[in-house]
Write a structure and sequence with these properties.
Elements: H1 2-16, H2 30-37, E1 56-65, E2 70-77, E3 86-91, H3 105-112, E4 116-121, H4 133-147, E5 159-164, H5 166-176, E6 196-199, H6 208-214, H7 222-227, H8 235-240, E7 254-258, H9 268-277, E8 282-286, H10 301-313
Parallel strand pairs: 3-4, 3-5, 5-6, 6-7, 7-8
Antiparallel strand pairs: 1-2, 2-4
């Protein structure tokens, strides 16, 4: 009885203790993008999550404890008989300041139906914590997934990392900088990915093309707010945050998907050349006349899924 009373008292305390307030930017939503695009792209469809029998979803599993809160991830699992025994950690976008793991629900749902186990982590956005907090959180999500891979029927060596927009930028940064042992919480963190998927994520902030867009607004740009200053103020940090800086012989096989808006994948030519020189598989696909958020809407979403599926199922063992 005393144990039950203590548990009840603790539960009451947890329910009544207010959580620490943190700044939230909700400017990037699927609804706002759909409204922006519907008159520009006739035939655009906002698809629904539609699970199939045997598919399961686990929400808000804690992967990291911070001093004032925990970080969580959602997991989409295929029906057991359909599993390809390949995991994929997908990092959402939102210009480093906004967005939600829920934005990947449809993509994760469709990939689970292709046999993949998909993990969607939240991470600290720039209003809460600037660079390098986000990449470190992505590192920790990968570490957690690899450590718990067996629980989901996955070999630890078959976990890919990917993302879209700013999430693709961070996924690329974490994947390519693994050999340099950067953005780790612990020196022995195992976060090596067996593949990288970058959907419209900048690969080199320091190129003229990237700077034309990411640095154009000066200190008010999303990249400058995340990196703590403009390119002119903090050039070393802009280079440090560029995945192309670290591409080399230990980089994972890479798929880059472009919406067709070239500045979102600035640096891709250098990265692909480096990977090919090191005999690492590097695939490139570009849409024509598509919106930036090709992973959110039909008719582009099925092509994104096909590209990811074809790439992952043909990875070298």
């Amino acid at each position: 009885m005393k144990t039950l009373l203590r548990c009840a008292a603790l539960a009451s305390l947890l329910l009544t203790t207010p959580l620490a307030a943190r700044p939230v930017d909700d400017s990037y939503t699927i609804a706002s993008r759909f409204e922006r695009y519907r008159s520009l792209y006739p035939g655009i469809v906002w698809p629904a999550v539609a699970p199939v029998p045997g598919e399961t979803m686990l929400f808000d599993r804690a992967y990291k404890s911070l001093p004032d809160r925990a970080l969580h991830l959602d997991i989409f699992r295929p029906a057991p008989r359909q599993s390809r025994h390949q995991g994929l950690v997908l990092v959402h976008g939102g210009a480093w300041r906004s967005g939600s793991k829920a934005h990947f629900y449809v993509l994760a749902d469709r990939l689970a139906q292709r046999g993949y186990t998909v993990f969607l982590p939240e991470y600290r956005l720039s209003p809460e914590a600037p660079f390098p907090a986000g990449p470190i959180d992505v590192n920790d999500a990968m570490v957690w997934v690899k450590a718990h891979a067996a629980e989901f029927g996955l070999p630890p060596g078959r976990i890919a990392l990917g993302g879209a927009s700013s999430g693709g930028q961070m996924a690329s940064l974490v994947a390519y900088s693994d050999a340099a042992r950067l953005f780790r919480s612990k020196p022995d963190d195992d976060r090596r990915a067996n593949a990288l998927i970058d959907i419209d994520g900048v690969l080199d902030f320091t190129t003229p093309l990237a700077l034309q867009f990411e640095n154009a607004s000066g200190a008010t740009s999303s990249a400058a707010k995340w990196l703590g200053g403009t390119f002119e103020q903090t050039p070393a940090r802009w280079k440090e945050a560029s995945a192309a800086t670290y591409a080399g012989p230990k980089s994972p096989p890479t798929l880059i998907i472009s919406s067709g808006n070239a500045h979102f994948t600035a640096g891709k030519d250098q990265v692909i050349a480096t990977l090919q020189a090191n005999h690492i598989p590097a695939h490139w696909y570009a849409f024509e006349k598509a919106p930036h958020d090709v992973w959110l809407f039909e008719p582009w979403l099925p092509t994104v899924i096909d590209q990811i599926d074809n790439f992952l199922k043909n990875l070298p063992e």
